[in-house]
Specification:
Elements lengths: L1 H14 L9 H11 L5 E6 L3 E2 L2 E2 L3 E10 L5 E4 L14 E6 H5 L2 E2 L21 E2 L2 H5 L5 E11 L2 E9 L6 E7 L6 H19 L6 E7 L3 H9 L7 E7 L9 E3 L7 H13 L4 E3 L8 H4 L8 E5 L21 H20 L2 E4 L25 H12 L1 E5 H8 L3 H13 L3 E5 L5
Parallel strand pairs: 7-8, 11-12, 11-13, 13-16, 14-15
Antiparallel strand pairs: 1-10, 2-3, 4-5, 4-9, 6-9, 10-12, 14-16, 17-18, 17-19
Bound molecules: zinc ion.
Protein backbone atom coordinates (compact mmCIF):
# COMPACT_ATOMS: atom_id res chain seq x y z
CA UNK A 1 0.00 0.00 0.00
CA UNK A 2 2.77 2.49 0.88
CA UNK A 3 4.21 1.87 -2.60
CA UNK A 4 0.87 2.98 -4.04
CA UNK A 5 1.03 6.37 -2.26
CA UNK A 6 4.47 7.11 -3.64
CA UNK A 7 3.51 5.82 -7.10
CA UNK A 8 0.49 8.15 -7.22
CA UNK A 9 2.53 11.12 -6.03
CA UNK A 10 5.24 10.39 -8.55
CA UNK A 11 2.71 10.37 -11.42
CA UNK A 12 1.45 13.77 -10.21
CA UNK A 13 4.98 15.20 -10.16
CA UNK A 14 5.61 13.88 -13.67
CA UNK A 15 2.37 15.28 -15.16
CA UNK A 16 2.49 18.57 -13.27
CA UNK A 17 4.51 20.61 -15.82
CA UNK A 18 2.28 19.67 -18.79
CA UNK A 19 0.12 22.49 -20.17
CA UNK A 20 -3.30 20.83 -20.33
CA UNK A 21 -6.57 22.29 -21.48
CA UNK A 22 -9.95 20.99 -22.65
CA UNK A 23 -8.27 20.19 -26.01
CA UNK A 24 -4.73 20.08 -27.37
CA UNK A 25 -1.40 18.32 -27.19
CA UNK A 26 -1.00 18.61 -23.40
CA UNK A 27 -4.30 16.80 -22.89
CA UNK A 28 -3.25 14.09 -25.37
CA UNK A 29 0.19 13.71 -23.77
CA UNK A 30 -1.50 13.27 -20.39
CA UNK A 31 -3.84 10.59 -21.73
CA UNK A 32 -0.92 8.77 -23.37
CA UNK A 33 1.00 8.84 -20.09
CA UNK A 34 -2.01 7.36 -18.23
CA UNK A 35 -2.14 4.77 -21.03
CA UNK A 36 1.33 3.60 -20.01
CA UNK A 37 -0.08 2.68 -16.58
CA UNK A 38 -3.41 1.11 -17.58
CA UNK A 39 -5.01 0.15 -20.93
CA UNK A 40 -6.66 3.34 -22.15
CA UNK A 41 -8.83 3.79 -25.21
CA UNK A 42 -8.48 7.35 -26.45
CA UNK A 43 -11.30 8.93 -28.48
CA UNK A 44 -11.27 12.18 -30.43
CA UNK A 45 -14.38 14.28 -31.00
CA UNK A 46 -13.73 16.77 -33.77
CA UNK A 47 -14.16 20.52 -33.50
CA UNK A 48 -17.66 21.64 -34.42
CA UNK A 49 -19.38 18.42 -33.30
CA UNK A 50 -22.62 19.18 -31.49
CA UNK A 51 -22.91 17.36 -28.16
CA UNK A 52 -26.30 18.14 -26.67
CA UNK A 53 -26.35 21.92 -26.17
CA UNK A 54 -22.58 22.30 -26.63
CA UNK A 55 -20.23 22.41 -29.59
CA UNK A 56 -16.71 20.98 -29.45
CA UNK A 57 -14.51 24.09 -29.57
CA UNK A 58 -11.42 24.81 -31.62
CA UNK A 59 -8.31 23.03 -30.45
CA UNK A 60 -5.82 25.15 -28.52
CA UNK A 61 -2.04 24.71 -28.46
CA UNK A 62 0.75 26.93 -27.20
CA UNK A 63 4.40 27.14 -28.24
CA UNK A 64 5.38 30.12 -26.14
CA UNK A 65 4.05 33.24 -24.45
CA UNK A 66 5.68 36.14 -22.66
CA UNK A 67 5.53 39.81 -21.77
CA UNK A 68 8.68 41.97 -21.98
CA UNK A 69 8.97 45.18 -19.99
CA UNK A 70 10.29 48.48 -21.48
CA UNK A 71 13.88 47.31 -20.88
CA UNK A 72 13.26 44.12 -22.89
CA UNK A 73 13.28 41.86 -19.81
CA UNK A 74 10.73 39.02 -19.78
CA UNK A 75 8.59 39.84 -16.76
CA UNK A 76 5.95 37.19 -17.43
CA UNK A 77 7.07 33.90 -18.97
CA UNK A 78 4.89 30.91 -19.91
CA UNK A 79 8.03 28.73 -19.79
CA UNK A 80 8.35 29.42 -16.04
CA UNK A 81 4.73 28.42 -15.31
CA UNK A 82 1.92 27.60 -17.72
CA UNK A 83 -0.49 29.27 -15.27
CA UNK A 84 0.92 32.61 -16.46
CA UNK A 85 -1.09 32.35 -19.68
CA UNK A 86 -4.89 32.53 -19.61
CA UNK A 87 -5.92 29.09 -20.88
CA UNK A 88 -7.29 29.41 -24.44
CA UNK A 89 -5.56 32.75 -25.15
CA UNK A 90 -5.64 33.35 -28.92
CA UNK A 91 -2.37 34.35 -30.65
CA UNK A 92 -1.18 37.92 -30.34
CA UNK A 93 2.04 39.81 -31.04
CA UNK A 94 1.86 43.47 -30.14
CA UNK A 95 3.19 46.41 -28.16
CA UNK A 96 1.25 48.51 -25.70
CA UNK A 97 1.71 50.74 -22.69
CA UNK A 98 1.35 49.58 -19.11
CA UNK A 99 -2.21 50.86 -18.70
CA UNK A 100 -3.43 48.94 -21.74
CA UNK A 101 -1.52 45.81 -20.64
CA UNK A 102 -3.12 45.90 -17.18
CA UNK A 103 -6.52 45.25 -18.79
CA UNK A 104 -5.20 41.82 -19.81
CA UNK A 105 -3.56 40.90 -16.48
CA UNK A 106 -5.07 38.85 -13.65
CA UNK A 107 -3.72 38.70 -10.11
CA UNK A 108 -4.91 38.00 -6.57
CA UNK A 109 -4.49 41.07 -4.34
CA UNK A 110 -5.53 38.95 -1.33
CA UNK A 111 -2.84 36.32 -2.09
CA UNK A 112 -0.13 38.57 -3.57
CA UNK A 113 2.51 35.85 -4.03
CA UNK A 114 0.36 33.38 -5.97
CA UNK A 115 -0.39 33.11 -9.69
CA UNK A 116 -4.12 32.59 -10.33
CA UNK A 117 -5.49 30.05 -12.83
CA UNK A 118 -7.83 31.57 -15.42
CA UNK A 119 -9.50 30.26 -18.58
CA UNK A 120 -11.37 31.78 -21.50
CA UNK A 121 -12.54 28.66 -23.35
CA UNK A 122 -15.72 29.90 -24.95
CA UNK A 123 -14.87 33.56 -25.59
CA UNK A 124 -11.14 33.45 -26.27
CA UNK A 125 -9.41 36.63 -25.11
CA UNK A 126 -5.70 36.72 -24.50
CA UNK A 127 -4.49 37.39 -21.00
CA UNK A 128 -1.75 36.73 -18.49
CA UNK A 129 -1.82 35.80 -14.81
CA UNK A 130 0.84 36.77 -12.31
CA UNK A 131 1.54 37.34 -8.65
CA UNK A 132 0.03 40.62 -7.52
CA UNK A 133 3.41 41.64 -6.06
CA UNK A 134 4.95 41.27 -9.53
CA UNK A 135 2.09 43.17 -11.17
CA UNK A 136 2.59 46.08 -8.80
CA UNK A 137 6.30 46.18 -9.67
CA UNK A 138 5.71 46.64 -13.41
CA UNK A 139 7.29 49.97 -14.46
CA UNK A 140 5.57 52.44 -16.79
CA UNK A 141 6.49 52.41 -20.50
CA UNK A 142 5.97 50.29 -23.56
CA UNK A 143 5.59 46.52 -23.26
CA UNK A 144 5.96 43.79 -25.85
CA UNK A 145 3.46 40.92 -25.74
CA UNK A 146 3.69 37.57 -27.50
CA UNK A 147 1.21 34.70 -27.37
CA UNK A 148 2.45 32.09 -29.83
CA UNK A 149 -0.63 29.87 -29.72
CA UNK A 150 -2.89 28.23 -32.27
CA UNK A 151 -6.64 28.02 -32.08
CA UNK A 152 -8.27 26.10 -34.89
CA UNK A 153 -10.03 22.94 -36.04
CA UNK A 154 -8.86 19.84 -34.19
CA UNK A 155 -10.43 17.58 -31.62
CA UNK A 156 -11.31 17.07 -28.00
CA UNK A 157 -9.80 13.88 -26.61
CA UNK A 158 -10.89 11.70 -23.71
CA UNK A 159 -9.70 8.36 -22.37
CA UNK A 160 -11.56 5.29 -21.16
CA UNK A 161 -10.33 2.25 -19.29
CA UNK A 162 -12.78 -0.61 -19.02
CA UNK A 163 -12.23 -3.28 -16.37
CA UNK A 164 -14.54 -6.12 -17.39
CA UNK A 165 -16.50 -7.77 -14.60
CA UNK A 166 -18.64 -10.87 -14.23
CA UNK A 167 -21.74 -8.69 -14.65
CA UNK A 168 -22.49 -6.12 -17.34
CA UNK A 169 -23.67 -3.78 -14.58
CA UNK A 170 -21.27 -0.88 -14.44
CA UNK A 171 -19.54 1.39 -11.96
CA UNK A 172 -18.31 4.70 -13.36
CA UNK A 173 -15.24 6.50 -12.04
CA UNK A 174 -14.79 9.87 -13.72
CA UNK A 175 -11.99 12.41 -13.37
CA UNK A 176 -11.24 15.67 -15.16
CA UNK A 177 -7.96 15.98 -17.03
CA UNK A 178 -8.05 19.55 -18.37
CA UNK A 179 -6.21 21.68 -15.80
CA UNK A 180 -2.60 22.73 -16.48
CA UNK A 181 -0.08 22.89 -13.61
CA UNK A 182 -2.49 22.25 -10.74
CA UNK A 183 -1.83 19.21 -8.59
CA UNK A 184 -4.79 18.61 -6.31
CA UNK A 185 -7.35 19.94 -8.78
CA UNK A 186 -7.20 17.26 -11.48
CA UNK A 187 -3.86 15.44 -11.10
CA UNK A 188 -4.81 13.88 -7.76
CA UNK A 189 -7.99 12.43 -9.28
CA UNK A 190 -6.03 11.12 -12.27
CA UNK A 191 -3.48 9.42 -10.00
CA UNK A 192 -6.04 7.82 -7.67
CA UNK A 193 -8.31 6.64 -10.50
CA UNK A 194 -5.31 5.15 -12.31
CA UNK A 195 -4.22 3.30 -9.18
CA UNK A 196 -7.72 1.96 -8.53
CA UNK A 197 -8.05 0.77 -12.15
CA UNK A 198 -4.66 -0.92 -11.90
CA UNK A 199 -5.76 -2.78 -8.76
CA UNK A 200 -9.12 -3.87 -10.20
CA UNK A 201 -7.38 -5.09 -13.38
CA UNK A 202 -5.38 -7.61 -11.33
CA UNK A 203 -8.58 -9.55 -10.55
CA UNK A 204 -11.98 -10.09 -12.04
CA UNK A 205 -14.49 -7.82 -10.34
CA UNK A 206 -18.17 -8.72 -10.02
CA UNK A 207 -19.14 -5.47 -11.71
CA UNK A 208 -17.71 -3.86 -14.82
CA UNK A 209 -15.73 -0.74 -13.95
CA UNK A 210 -15.46 2.12 -16.42
CA UNK A 211 -12.80 4.78 -15.77
CA UNK A 212 -13.26 8.04 -17.67
CA UNK A 213 -10.53 10.65 -18.06
CA UNK A 214 -12.36 13.61 -19.57
CA UNK A 215 -11.96 17.37 -19.96
CA UNK A 216 -14.37 18.95 -17.48
CA UNK A 217 -17.92 19.80 -18.56
CA UNK A 218 -17.73 19.65 -22.37
CA UNK A 219 -15.71 16.39 -22.22
CA UNK A 220 -18.17 14.71 -19.89
CA UNK A 221 -21.07 15.99 -21.99
CA UNK A 222 -19.35 14.67 -25.14
CA UNK A 223 -18.92 11.24 -23.54
CA UNK A 224 -22.59 11.20 -22.50
CA UNK A 225 -23.71 12.25 -25.98
CA UNK A 226 -21.70 9.44 -27.58
CA UNK A 227 -22.65 6.82 -24.97
CA UNK A 228 -26.22 7.64 -24.00
CA UNK A 229 -27.32 4.10 -24.86
CA UNK A 230 -24.78 2.73 -22.41
CA UNK A 231 -25.75 4.56 -19.25
CA UNK A 232 -28.65 2.20 -18.57
CA UNK A 233 -26.10 -0.29 -17.19
CA UNK A 234 -24.67 2.21 -14.75
CA UNK A 235 -25.41 1.15 -11.19
CA UNK A 236 -23.10 3.50 -9.33
CA UNK A 237 -20.54 6.15 -10.05
CA UNK A 238 -18.08 8.52 -8.49
CA UNK A 239 -16.44 11.67 -9.70
CA UNK A 240 -13.04 12.03 -8.02
CA UNK A 241 -11.70 15.55 -7.60
CA UNK A 242 -9.32 17.15 -5.15
CA UNK A 243 -8.41 13.87 -3.47
CA UNK A 244 -4.80 14.53 -2.43
CA UNK A 245 -4.89 17.53 -0.06
CA UNK A 246 -4.35 17.07 3.67
CA UNK A 247 -8.06 17.61 4.52
CA UNK A 248 -10.55 14.91 5.42
CA UNK A 249 -12.63 12.97 2.94
CA UNK A 250 -15.86 14.65 1.86
CA UNK A 251 -18.67 13.12 -0.15
CA UNK A 252 -21.29 14.99 -2.12
CA UNK A 253 -24.40 12.90 -2.71
CA UNK A 254 -25.83 12.16 -6.12
CA UNK A 255 -29.00 13.94 -7.19
CA UNK A 256 -30.86 10.73 -6.25
CA UNK A 257 -29.44 11.04 -2.73
CA UNK A 258 -30.11 7.51 -1.47
CA UNK A 259 -28.72 5.34 -4.27
CA UNK A 260 -26.37 2.45 -3.57
CA UNK A 261 -23.26 4.60 -4.03
CA UNK A 262 -24.65 7.27 -1.70
CA UNK A 263 -25.33 4.72 1.02
CA UNK A 264 -22.05 2.90 0.42
CA UNK A 265 -19.87 6.01 0.65
CA UNK A 266 -21.72 7.34 3.67
CA UNK A 267 -21.27 3.97 5.40
CA UNK A 268 -17.53 3.93 4.71
CA UNK A 269 -17.03 7.53 5.84
CA UNK A 270 -19.02 6.94 9.02
CA UNK A 271 -16.89 3.96 10.00
CA UNK A 272 -13.65 5.81 9.32
CA UNK A 273 -14.69 8.04 12.19
CA UNK A 274 -12.39 10.96 11.42
CA UNK A 275 -15.14 13.55 11.12
CA UNK A 276 -15.63 13.04 7.41
CA UNK A 277 -18.42 15.01 5.90
CA UNK A 278 -21.38 14.19 3.67
CA UNK A 279 -22.87 17.04 1.68
CA UNK A 280 -26.21 17.18 -0.12
CA UNK A 281 -26.31 17.30 -3.90
CA UNK A 282 -25.87 20.72 -5.51
CA UNK A 283 -25.80 21.47 -9.24
CA UNK A 284 -22.31 22.99 -9.20
CA UNK A 285 -18.91 21.46 -8.69
CA UNK A 286 -17.42 18.88 -11.06
CA UNK A 287 -18.83 16.52 -13.70
CA UNK A 288 -21.42 15.02 -11.34
CA UNK A 289 -23.41 17.99 -12.67
CA UNK A 290 -23.52 16.31 -16.07
CA UNK A 291 -24.12 12.73 -14.89
CA UNK A 292 -26.83 14.02 -12.53
CA UNK A 293 -28.52 16.28 -15.09
CA UNK A 294 -32.24 15.42 -15.18
CA UNK A 295 -32.03 13.72 -18.59
CA UNK A 296 -29.65 11.14 -17.08
CA UNK A 297 -30.10 11.37 -13.30
CA UNK A 298 -27.41 8.74 -12.79
CA UNK A 299 -26.39 7.52 -9.34
CA UNK A 300 -23.09 9.42 -9.39
CA UNK A 301 -21.71 11.27 -6.36
CA UNK A 302 -18.49 13.20 -5.89
CA UNK A 303 -15.69 12.06 -3.61
CA UNK A 304 -13.18 14.71 -2.61
CA UNK A 305 -11.16 15.85 0.36
CA UNK A 306 -11.46 19.58 1.11
CA UNK A 307 -14.23 20.85 -1.21
CA UNK A 308 -13.09 23.01 -4.12
CA UNK A 309 -12.92 26.68 -3.32
CA UNK A 310 -12.61 25.98 0.42
CA UNK A 311 -8.81 25.77 0.45
CA UNK A 312 -6.69 28.86 -0.26
CA UNK A 313 -4.46 26.98 -2.72
CA UNK A 314 -7.47 26.27 -5.01
CA UNK A 315 -6.93 27.47 -8.59
CA UNK A 316 -3.58 29.07 -7.77
CA UNK A 317 0.11 28.25 -8.20
CA UNK A 318 0.10 27.03 -4.57
CA UNK A 319 -1.83 23.94 -5.70
CA UNK A 320 1.47 22.30 -6.56
CA UNK A 321 2.84 18.79 -5.87
CA UNK A 322 3.96 19.81 -2.36
CA UNK A 323 0.34 20.57 -1.45
CA UNK A 324 -0.64 16.99 -2.35
CA UNK A 325 0.50 14.29 0.10
CA UNK A 326 1.22 10.64 -0.64
CA UNK A 327 -0.55 9.77 2.67
CA UNK A 328 -3.69 11.68 1.62
CA UNK A 329 -3.73 9.99 -1.80
CA UNK A 330 -3.35 6.64 -0.07
CA UNK A 331 -6.12 7.47 2.40
CA UNK A 332 -8.49 8.31 -0.48
CA UNK A 333 -7.43 5.15 -2.31
CA UNK A 334 -8.04 2.93 0.73
CA UNK A 335 -11.45 4.57 1.24
CA UNK A 336 -12.24 3.75 -2.39
CA UNK A 337 -11.28 0.12 -1.86
CA UNK A 338 -13.78 -0.02 1.03
CA UNK A 339 -16.45 1.60 -1.16
CA UNK A 340 -15.64 -0.82 -3.98
CA UNK A 341 -16.05 -3.76 -1.59
CA UNK A 342 -19.61 -2.65 -0.86
CA UNK A 343 -20.52 -1.95 -4.49
CA UNK A 344 -19.07 -5.31 -5.48
CA UNK A 345 -20.53 -7.42 -2.69
CA UNK A 346 -23.80 -5.92 -1.53
CA UNK A 347 -26.42 -8.66 -1.88
CA UNK A 348 -29.87 -9.58 -0.65
CA UNK A 349 -29.97 -12.90 1.19
CA UNK A 350 -32.68 -15.15 2.52
CA UNK A 351 -32.50 -16.94 5.86
CA UNK A 352 -33.44 -20.51 4.95
CA UNK A 353 -34.33 -21.41 8.58
CA UNK A 354 -36.34 -18.35 9.57
CA UNK A 355 -38.50 -19.95 12.28
CA UNK A 356 -36.61 -19.22 15.47
CA UNK A 357 -32.87 -18.82 15.48
CA UNK A 358 -31.03 -21.68 13.85
CA UNK A 359 -28.72 -23.50 16.25
CA UNK A 360 -25.34 -21.96 15.47
CA UNK A 361 -23.35 -23.83 18.16
CA UNK A 362 -24.14 -27.17 16.57
CA UNK A 363 -22.63 -25.88 13.34
CA UNK A 364 -19.50 -24.56 15.03
CA UNK A 365 -20.54 -20.95 14.39
CA UNK A 366 -21.14 -19.94 18.01
CA UNK A 367 -19.04 -20.01 21.19
CA UNK A 368 -19.66 -23.12 23.28
CA UNK A 369 -20.02 -21.50 26.73
CA UNK A 370 -23.04 -19.29 27.28
CA UNK A 371 -23.68 -16.41 29.66
CA UNK A 372 -21.28 -13.79 28.29
CA UNK A 373 -22.89 -10.35 28.54
CA UNK A 374 -21.48 -9.16 25.28
CA UNK A 375 -21.25 -11.18 22.11
CA UNK A 376 -18.16 -11.02 19.92
CA UNK A 377 -18.71 -8.96 16.78
CA UNK A 378 -18.69 -11.98 14.51
CA UNK A 379 -21.55 -13.66 16.37
CA UNK A 380 -23.50 -10.43 16.65
CA UNK A 381 -23.09 -9.96 12.93
CA UNK A 382 -24.39 -13.48 12.24
CA UNK A 383 -27.48 -12.86 14.36
CA UNK A 384 -28.10 -9.56 12.57
CA UNK A 385 -27.74 -11.15 9.13
CA UNK A 386 -30.01 -14.07 10.03
CA UNK A 387 -32.62 -11.82 11.58
CA UNK A 388 -32.73 -9.27 8.77
CA UNK A 389 -32.36 -11.55 5.76
CA UNK A 390 -36.01 -11.96 4.78
CA UNK A 391 -35.27 -11.45 1.09
CA UNK A 392 -35.91 -7.71 1.09
CA UNK A 393 -32.86 -6.35 2.91
CA UNK A 394 -29.30 -6.12 1.61
CA UNK A 395 -26.09 -6.57 3.57
CA UNK A 396 -25.49 -2.82 3.44
CA UNK A 397 -28.92 -2.30 5.04
CA UNK A 398 -27.96 -4.83 7.73
CA UNK A 399 -24.68 -2.99 8.30
CA UNK A 400 -26.49 0.34 8.59
CA UNK A 401 -29.12 -1.01 10.95
CA UNK A 402 -26.67 -2.91 13.17
CA UNK A 403 -24.05 -0.16 13.19
CA UNK A 404 -21.44 -2.74 12.21
CA UNK A 405 -18.89 -2.30 9.41
CA UNK A 406 -19.91 -3.79 6.07
CA UNK A 407 -16.81 -6.03 5.99
CA UNK A 408 -17.84 -7.72 9.27
CA UNK A 409 -21.41 -8.24 8.08
CA UNK A 410 -20.21 -9.60 4.76
CA UNK A 411 -17.86 -12.05 6.48
CA UNK A 412 -20.76 -13.27 8.65
CA UNK A 413 -22.94 -13.75 5.58
CA UNK A 414 -20.19 -15.74 3.85
CA UNK A 415 -19.94 -18.06 6.86
CA UNK A 416 -23.71 -18.51 7.01
CA UNK A 417 -23.88 -19.30 3.30
CA UNK A 418 -21.09 -21.86 3.74
CA UNK A 419 -23.07 -23.42 6.62
CA UNK A 420 -26.20 -23.65 4.44
CA UNK A 421 -28.22 -21.23 6.56
CA UNK A 422 -28.37 -18.40 4.05
CA UNK A 423 -28.98 -18.21 0.34
CA UNK A 424 -28.73 -15.35 -2.08
CA UNK A 425 -32.20 -13.93 -2.83
CA UNK A 426 -31.13 -11.97 -5.90
CA UNK A 427 -28.11 -10.20 -7.25
CA UNK A 428 -28.55 -6.74 -5.84
CA UNK A 429 -27.28 -3.79 -7.73
CA UNK A 430 -30.34 -1.62 -7.48
CA UNK A 431 -29.96 2.09 -7.19
ZN1 LIG B 1 -10.70 23.41 -11.21
Amino acid sequence: MSGAGERMHSLIRELYPVCRSITGDGLRATLHRIGQEIPLEISDVVTGTAVYDWIIPDEWNVRDAWVKDPSGTKVIDFQASNLHLVNYSPPVSTRMDREELLKHLHSLPEQPDLIPYRTSYYRPEWGFCLAHRDLEALPPGEYEVLVDSTLGPGALSFGECLVPGASADEVLVSVHVCHPSLANDNLSGIAVATELARTLLTGRPNLTWRFLFVPATVGAIAWLALNHDRVGDMRAGLVLSGVGDPGRLTYKRSRLGTSLVDRAVEHVLKHRGAGEEVLPFAPYGYDERQYCSPGFNLPVGCLMRTPHGEYPEYHTSADDPSFVRAEALLDTYSGLLDIAEILEHDRVYLNVRPHGEPQLGRRGLYRQTGGDACLPGREQAMLWVLNQSDGSVSLLDVAARSGMPFAVVRQAADELVAAGLLTEAEALCAS
